[in-house]
Amino acid sequence: RCHHRTMDMLDVPFLPFCAFLGMLGLLCVAMVGTWCQHWRGGFSLDGSSRTFNWHPVLMVTGLVVLYGAAALVYRIPNTWSGPKLPWKVLHGSLALGAFILTVLGLAAVFSFHNSQGTPNMYSLHSWMGLGTVLLFSCQWAAGFGAFLLPWAPAWLRALYKPIHVFFGSTILMLSVASCVSGINEKLFFSLKNGTTAYKLLPAEAVFANTLGLLILIFGVLVVGALARPSWKRPDSNSPDSRQ
């Protein structure tokens, strides 16, 4: 009886939970933009450090927040009945938008490195980030071929669906790890040589560390929502689904 009472207390409706996630995601985007504008000099396309500042903003917006929104589309109760095609298109479009922003974010950091003569792809953050983007591109292409093209056979969709779901959550957590490690790497590089050392926790360090924690919380909550049984779309063969 105590167990059931506890579960009832934790039974948060999906839509308020989703609204909270949306506000948290917008807060993450606003904070990364504020960080780059206030402490890192703003934005530009001239190949300077201000060009680099597009990288964290686009990555957090696309690879974490927009990708998380795409992942949650099929948890909306309205998707549980009626035609699936409009929701498939929305899911694929959000994922495609996230991918486009991610590619632009990669272009910004490569442009900055090349203009400054800085080597590319030497840190763990860069390896993990590029690997996540490559996995994301494969995920989107495979999902488009299996679920949106009309000639994909039903057995192929049934076979690939659990794989698609698994890698969806995996890519999101890799995205969160890449963003958090990137924030930490940027602080180590920036807070030295004339600025307050990172170990002394200046205001920028506190702000960026808080941003990293919020990104981590966002990712954990999205994965938790994806794993919650009561928020999953009913199986097509179940009585509830047929009803």
Automatic annotation (TrEMBL):
Gene Ontology cellular-component annotations: late endosome membrane; lysosomal membrane
Subcellular location: Late endosome membrane; Lysosome membrane
Chief localisation class: membrane
Cytochrome b561 domain boundaries: 20-227
SMART domains: B561
Membrane topology: Multi-pass membrane protein
Entry EC number(s): 7.2.1.3
Any one GO MF annotation of this record: transmembrane ascorbate ferrireductase activity
Cofactor(s) named in the record: heme b
Keywords linked to the UniProt accession: Electron transport, Endosome, Glycoprotein, Heme, Iron, Lysosome, Membrane, Metal-binding, Oxidoreductase, Translocase, Transmembrane, Transmembrane helix, Transport
PROSITE patterns tied to this protein: CYTOCHROME_B561
Top EC group: translocase
InterPro entries xrefs: CYB561/CYBRD1-like (IPR043205), Cyt_b561/ferric_Rdtase_TM (IPR006593)
Quaternary structure, from the entry: Homodimer.
Role: Transmembrane reductase that uses ascorbate as an electron donor in the cytoplasm and transfers electrons across membranes to reduce iron cations Fe(3+) into Fe(2+) in the lumen of the late endosome and lysosome. Reduced iron can then be extruded from the late endosome and lysosome to the cytoplasm by divalent metal-specific transporters. It is therefore most probably involved in endosomal and lysosomal cellular iron homeostasis.
Protein name: Lysosomal membrane ascorbate-dependent ferrireductase CYB561A3
Organism this protein belongs to: Pardalotus punctatus
